[in-house]
Amino acid sequence: MSAANELISITSGDLSARINPFGAELSSLTDAQGREYMTDADPAFWSGRAPLLFPIVGALAGDTLRLDWQNYRMSKHGFARRSAFMAVEQAADRAVFRLEDSAETRASYPFAFALEMAFTLSGLTLAMVATVYNTGAAALPFSFGFHPAFAWPLPGGADKAAHCVVFEHEEPQPVRRVSPGAGLLLPESEPSPVQGRELLVEESLFTADAMIWTDLASRSLTYGAEGGAWLDVAFPDMAILGLWQVPGARYICIEPWAGHADPLGFSGDLSDKPGIVMLAPGMARSFRMDVTVRAG
Questions:
Q1: How many whole angstroms from its chain centre is CA 191?
Q2: What is the pLDDT of residues 160-200, one digit of tens each?
Q3: Is residue 203 in a domain?
Q4: Cα–Cα distances in Å, from 52 out to 30, 43, 76, 171?
Q5: What is the largest CA-CA distance in the chain?
Q6: DSSP string, 106-121
Q7: β-strands 144-146, 52-53 pairing
Q8: How far apart (Å, rounded) are the C-alpha atoms in residues 57 and 212?
Q9: Under 8 Å CB-to-CB from 41, ≥6 apart: which residues?
Q10: SS3 for 53-99, per residue?
Q11: Is the preceding omega at residue 55 within 30 degrees of 0, hence cis?
């Protein structure tokens, strides 16, 4: 297997991906012409690429995980993105990574678990499947989310201002925001910027941080622009979506989630948090995100 800090490459011939075992993070997605569909990770804006969000999505109030009257320290989005995964399977077109609980994880999250992340390329589609296993004797409360940053503009020559997101279904419901600084889910909502099924992507949408749909009708969307490339994105197992960027950056994050940040004012137990997933002992739960490239 590769060294812990060495990117692992897979290819279908039509697409190639490189994954960093640190965080099991997708770092690059290129087509046969070598065109890049992921962020340039300019540190002037954000150096992330596609972190995995586990065992929480977003922030906890006071960065504190409350469980059975005990408090544990956990920073935004959890520890998976800052953990070294083991590469447990590697083929020309597929790689699988695994993170298991340890003394270090149990200090902030006192549960037995395994998180497996599989990347498979087939033609022009990258399938990403995260599977959470409860290897302990108690119910496992957790959230999981994908956080990939795709190039904006995408390859193909279309103007950045022409890019849009087209949802599978109409999305008239209001969107949510997080509080400045603390990153907690605000109770107020604002009118949806989606016109029918279409959202024109503009930097001004993100001056108040991410846009969050907490009860999305769609389980797929398309992102791109006429005259350039498109990405078809499917997330059949997740009902929450975040769209985010730092204004001025050359990426947009399309983030399907199972769970979200603590609501403002929430001070309860993790197992009672809105949106939390409860997994019985010995069970597993998978979350899939497929990205299909339609090159311009």
A1: 24
A2: 999 999 999 999 999 999 999 999 999 999 999 999 999 99
A3: yes
A4: 20, 19, 12, 26
A5: 56
A6: HTTS---EEEEEEEEE
A7: antiparallel
A8: 12
A9: 47, 48, 49, 149
A10: ECCCCCCCHHHEEEECCEEEECCCCCCHHHCECEEEEEECCEEEEEE
A11: yes
Q: Do β-strands 284-294 and 251-258 pair in parallel, antiparallel, or remain unpaired?
A: unpaired
Helices (DSSP H) in the chain: which residue ranges?
A: 103-106
* pLDDT beneath 70: ranges in the chain: 1-5
Task: Calculate the CA 95 to chain-centre distance.
Answer: 18
Task: Return the structure tokens found at 94.
Answer: 């597929």
pTM: 0.96
| Domain-embedded: residue 236 | yes
| Cα–Cα distance for residue pair 123/179, rounded to 1 Å | 41
Taking a C-beta distance cutoff of 8 angstroms, is the pair 275, 139 a contact? no
pLDDT, tens digit (0-9, with 9 covering 90-100), for 158-169: 999 999 999 999
Residue 127 in domain = yes
CATH number at residue 171: 2.70.98.10
Two structure tokens written together for 206: 């993100």
Structural domain count, the chain: 1
**Which DSSP state fits 6?**
S
Contact indicator for 45, 248 with CB cutoff of 8 Å: yes
Phi and psi at 220, nearest 5°, equal -160, 160
Q: Are 182 and 155 in contact (CB under 8 A)?
A: no
Q: By residue range, what is the domain housing residue 254? A: 8-294
**Would you say residue 1 lies in a domain?**
no
| Dihedral of alpha carbons 170, 211, 73, 113, sign | positive
State the Cα–Cα distance between residues 229 and 37, nearest whole angstrom.
9
Structure tokens at 58: 């977003």
- Please state, in angstroms and rounded to a whole number, the distance separating the CA atoms of residues 111 and 268: 18
